[in-house]
Design goal:
The chain is built from three helices and eight strands. It is an alpha+beta fold and 105 residues long. It has one domain: NE0471 N-terminal domain-like.
Amino acid sequence: MQTPNPEDIQAIGTEIAIRWSDGSENYYPMERLRAWSPSAETAGERDLLGQKFGGDERTEFPGVRVTAWQNVGTYAIAFAFSDGHKTGLYAYDYLKALGRHLGQE
């Protein structure tokens, strides 16, 4: 099954709301989006042997807000956050998985 594309993205209070092309909707707390950033800066990187290097050990980002976003090709969204973080590319399938993790599907 193909991952749907976002049709509308809005900041509503402290959440990002996405309406998908399949008619579903997901609501992501901004602080959680920051914590779940798939960037190497946040998640770290692994070498050929699987050893992790870098990454941010924090799991909470209280008060952090999404300040902007842009589509990256036809596969991801790049969010910018109030703490200056802006290097994570959130693939559509990753965002849908986060929605399931949040119990929204």
